[in-house]
Amino acid sequence: MEERVKQIKQQLSAHNYKLTPQREATVRVLLENEEDHLSAEDVYLLVKEKAPEIGLATVYRTLELLSDLTIIHKLNFGDGVTRYEFRAEGAEHHHHHLICLNCGAVDEIIDDWLGPIEKRVEKEFDFQIIDHRLTFHGICHRCKDQVKDPGKLVGSKVT
Amino acid sequence: MEERVKQIKQQLSAHNYKLTPQREATVRVLLENEEDHLSAEDVYLLVKEKAPEIGLATVYRTLELLSDLTIIHKLNFGDGVTRYEFRAEGAEHHHHHLICLNCGAVDEIIDDWLGPIEKRVEKEFDFQIIDHRLTFHGICHRCKDQVKDPGKLVGSKVT
DNA sequence: TTATCATATGAGATTTGATATCAATTGAAT
DNA sequence: ATTCAATTGATATCAAATCTCATATGATAA
Ligand SMILES: [Zn+2]
Ligand SMILES: [Zn+2]
Ligand SMILES: [Zn+2]
Ligand SMILES: [Zn+2]
């Protein structure tokens, strides 16, 4: 933890940014909830618990800054709010997500399974891939028993 | 064209909805721009050209309705606006998109290349897939010559 | 035709996520 | 201590989307 805060501090100063108390509080919240996919509002509420004087705008600015430096990653699951998570260190691409349409849980596929498909895209479409996004929407293993008609769940969801 | 309007009219009445003039105008705009990925605002402006009296709320309501009936598909490319496109007839899953980070063009991979990966997801994660979203972000073949440092393009983009 | 009634519509208000503005504060470097 | 740019917090603003509600429409029955 202290380790990673220090590392982030270095990444910031390498770009002439300081790790202010507000930024540090925000970073710590992100680290403490690394397994989740928090929205800006989520982060704001959690940061306020330890640093009540912080403003919402500062949280947004900090998230944007960490995003610019590719320390964290902005995600959009189509539910109207941007979410944030740490980038796996050294990971070139983003991992994949499994979103349950019944309970909303977000599980992850850490490995990158798209290698062969990316090769094909670059070749057949002459398209130079920088990043990708792969999300599966469906019923998670925890919900599979209580959902009878999955077809009803798709409807007007944004994908 | 008339063919497809009639077909949609039937799909609507099968669910006790009428193809009102406003809905028909909206459907025709979607059909006439099938190759694009229009936002609600785009649709609104185009519909207004032929039916100036239409209200924005009606366009939103119509798009939502067509979405509910899975006649069209709601898309989210992370740029803050929801986009709409016709669902390929009979297509269970949605096709894939190539989004150019330089010019914003959206190209399509019509075939579904995810079959093997989906099998793996269902097996390894016990996750029942209903739909998926696969988007590649990068440099399209039209832009590849004018972009020198693609790394700079990723930054804080939402994915 | 006229009355009835559920459905659909348009204008505008409201909500919500996110960004911009700007005066005040901080803090590093003289 | 002085300076000066970076940062912050409160608030205004913006845009997308939804909600409200009075009115309009259109099918049906008398
Ligand atoms: Zn679930
Ligand atoms: Zn994730
Ligand atoms: Zn391009
Ligand atoms: Zn498409």
TrEMBL record, chains A, B:
Cofactor: Mn(2+); Fe(2+); Zn(2+)
GO MF entry, a single one: zinc ion binding
Residue numbers binding Fe cation: H94, H132
Keyword set includes Chloroplast: no
Cofactor binding notes: Binds 1 Mn(2+) or Fe(2+) ion per subunit.
Annotated keywords: DNA-binding, Iron, Metal-binding, Repressor, Transcription, Transcription regulation, Zinc
SUPFAM superfamilies noted in UniProt: Winged helix' DNA-binding domain
Record flagged with keyword Iron: yes
Entries under Gene3D superfamilies matching the protein: 3.30.1490.190, Winged helix-like DNA-binding domain superfamily/Winged helix DNA-binding domain
Pfam annotation, one family: FUR
Protein family per UniProt: Belongs to the Fur family.
Protein name (record): Fur family transcriptional regulator, ferric uptake regulator
Source organism of this protein record: Melghirimyces algeriensis
